[in-house]
Amino acid sequence: KMTQQMRDLQLAQARKPPGPSSPNAAKRLYRNLSGKFRVNYTSFDEGSLAGRGEKEKLRKSYPFQSNAALFEAVELQDLDRVQDLLKQYSPEELDLNTPNSEGLLPLDIAIMTNNAPIARALLQAGAKESPHFVSLESRSLHLSTLVREAEQRVNELTAQVVNEAPNADCSEKEKQLKAWEWRYRLYKRMKAGFEHARVPDAPTNVHLSVASSSSVQVTFWEPLSVNSAVVTKYKVEWSCSPTFSPLLGEAVIDKLKNLHFTIRGLVSGTAYYVQVSAYNMKGWGPPQASVPPFAIPSNWREYDGRAPRRRGQAEALDHLLGQVKTVHQHCICHEPCKNQPQSRKHSVSKSLKHLFHPGSKFLKTLKRGLYLTAIFYKDDNILVTHEDQIPVVEIDDTYSCLLMQDFLWFTKVSCMWDEILWLRQCVTVSQSSCSCILQTRFKMLLAISQMQGLLGIQDLGQVFFEPVKDKQGNILIVTLKEVKTNQTFESVRWVPICKLQTSRKSVSSPEEPTALDTLLISVQDKLAYHQRSSHALSPGLYLGYLKLCSAVDQIRVLVPEQLPNILCHVKIRSNPNISREEWEWLQKMASVEEPVPAEPEAETSQNQLFQELQVAIKELMTLVNIPLQEAKDFRLYSQEVLDFGGQVSFLLLLPPSDDVCTAPGQNNPYTPRSGFLTLPLQIFELGEEG
GO cellular component terms (predicted)? Predict the structure, then answer.
């Protein structure tokens, strides 16, 4: 069969152009040809639908060319070309796991020539080893056959070239001879690579951690040795016995982008031992036991049987809101609507007409009062009115100073943009006339409805954490929303932000800019804040720094400018779970009045957490610019672990109890100088919830 394959190969070679005379010549020829192919593949007009269709047809009609190009690039050890092909084509288009006429796959050639970079690139793309090599003997026999038949072909062509007179046919045979000599050397190199290879060493840094009450996670690194063949897969085994007899289970990992594995479906409170071994073309290497040697699935809540703090809260709040709505349907403010349904319809219609009435429109200038402005942005563009103004509506023209409580109430309303009409019905004009606070809040609801009607959209986005003020007595409440789709709005259009900033004619002096001018000057900073406040942390356990400062009417919390919806923090580890044993150790540390820096026993999860916390505390103190010696009285919050969605959790580091919250006028020794800002606590809570 192999001989027949080689005859077919000879026939194919006879039809092919002359082969390369040496590896370097082959590489040059290959690059020249592949360069020409690249020109052909990209010569279509990308902007034309017909052009794209023709290009797709061309791609699909040449699977052999792309597959052959990949084999050639691997054989010539051209890493750049291999990466280009893997990026340009899908594994299916490349026929990545289809053997060639010699029964080899691209990954086989890479690992038998011990080209680790190309082998890793192929493995990342999903390449497999040939299934024909079921044993070491079958692989050895296959390689020996390839070398023997290539040598035989070289000898035959050599005899023909020596014995024939110089002519065109002889020149063709000389080229075939050079190509076969090159292939003969390749097969010999592959055979030598296989014969000199040995099984891989054990993986390194095999670390075991508790992932939940029913799972553990093992992470590991590649073997250190560079003399063995490329590792193509790993095996994770687990057992309740340190001798791994009997085995409870095993898993083979052949996707090597991330070297970790989570063992699920385990029994809480049971110790599990884990080991990992590596595999290459010579077989499985020795297993490496994890550190610590075993782990017990658990969660910190099992220490005292505590239920999750937020369990059922969302459902309870929805139920409470439903009850409030039901009660308000029978209150006095809804009775006229209930008794006169036709009147209600007319009233609603009239209120909707009021929104689109010519008198209800965006403002061009401010005249000392309280205003609402909505900033919608997409990439570098912003929505403006037909007069090239940021959309602004009036809330109250007699409001000279914005009370913090009114502003915080407005931020809570921003969580209910869809319920504005219902809230307006609950705060009627007759009720608001009895209270100055209700009057202001009713006007806020009217302004929101007006903005929603003028823009034709209900969701106005997130409220910026502080209003924009000027010396003329104007106050702007700013909402921000990023538009990610091609959405159309009423009465507004898109313009580049830079164009708006350069074309706007200021009506104020640089010394005393109006609130609108201040907003326009600082709009990029506000957009950056909005984008950063929506970023999420990657899964893991974090150490957060809680620092508050109080004013007359509010408490503010310290946050980093780059991530204002999260406390100042550093990452402790990628595993967010705190096990029962780790939490028990933390409780013992917290109960000691003068903690002694005694390390837990080696090779335990507690010791690993101890070391991780030491590193994290030093990093966090450097981040917030607090000398380490000043942090000797800091303490860990030991009442609970803060869980966020099961993927992110926090331990809190607190200053001394008297310095957690700094009073007005008090010296604040534990606040960093730059790169941070302080948010009103209620604003931070809304951002953290989002």
Answer: spindle
Q: What are phi and psi of 438, to 5 degrees?
A: -65, -35
What b/e string do you get for 389-407 counting C-beta neighbours within 10 Å, with b at 16 or more? Answer: bbbbbbbbeebeebeeebb
DSSP state of 251: E
The segment with the largest mean pLDDT, out of 62-71, 170-179, 327-336, 517-526, is: 517-526
261, containing H or E segment:
strand 260-263
Model pLDDT for residues 117-155, shown as the tens digit of each residue = 999 899 989 898 888 887 899 899 999 999 999 999 999
Write the secondary structure of 220-242 as one string of H (helix), E (strand) and C (coil).
EECCCCCCCCCCCEEEEEEECCC
* Token digits of residue 219: 């992470």
Angle at 425 between CA 422 and CA 430, to 5 degrees: 160
Decide: helix, strand or coil at residue 533: coil
Domains of the chain: 61-196 (1.25.40), 207-298 (2.60.40.10), 360-534 (3.90.79), 540-591+607-688 (3.90.79)
Amino acid at 366: L
Q: Please tell me the distance from the alpha carbon of residue 88 to that of residue 44, in angstroms, as a whole number.
A: 15
Distance CA 432, CA 412 (A): 19
Reported confidence tier of residue 331, pLDDT bands at 50, 70, 90: low
Is residue 395 within 8 A of residue 441, CB to CB? The reply is no
Query: Looking at the predicted structure, is the pLDDT value of residue 246 above 70?
Result: yes
Residue located via tokens 């796959």: 105
- 3-state per-residue secondary structure call for 315-356: HHHHHHHHHHHHHHCCCHHHHHHHHCHHHHHHHHHHHHHHHC
Task: Centre a 10 Å sphere on the Cβ of residue 429 and count the other Cβ atoms it contains.
Answer: 12
**What DSSP line would sit under 127-172, residue for residue?**
----TT--SHHHHHHHHHHHHHHHHHHHHHHHHHHHHSPSSHHHHH
DSSP 8-state assignment for residue 332: G
Question: Which distant-in-sequence residues (6+ apart) come within 8 Å of 335 by Cβ?
Answer: none
Classify residue 133 as left (phi > 0), alpha (psi -120 to 50) or beta: beta
Residues 6+ away with beta carbon under 8 Å from 648: 536, 537, 539, 540, 542, 576
> Would you say 319 and 327 are in contact if contact means Cβ atoms under 8 Å apart?
no
Residues 294, 218 contacting (CB under 8 angstroms) = no
In one-letter notation, the amino acid at residue 464 is F
Name the nearest CA neighbour of 192 among 226, 128, 144, 232: 144
Burial, 211: exposed, middle or buried (Cβ in 10 Å; 0-12, 13-18, 19+)? buried
